[in-house]
Amino acid sequence: MSEAVEHIKSSDPQAPVTRKGYLMSIKSGEPIDIKDCDVHGRCRAVTDFEKLNRIGEGTYGIVYRARDSRTNSIVALKKVRMDQEKDGLPISGLREIMILKACNHENIVNLIDVVVGKSLESIFLVMEYCEQDLASLLDNMVQPFSESEVKCIILQVLHGLEYMHSRYIIHRDLKVSNLLMTDKGCVKIADFGLARLYGEPSTTMTPQVVTLWYRSPELLLGSPIQTTAVDMWAVGCILGELLSHKPLLPGNTELGQLDLITDLLGTPSENIWPEFLKMPALENFTLKQQPYNNLKPKFQYLTAAGLRLLNFLFMYDPKKRATAEECLQSSYFKEPPLPCDPKLMPTFPQHRNLAQTKQTTGQQTNIELPTISAILGSILKKRRVE
Question: Which sites bind ATP (predicted)?
Answer without folding.
Answer: 78
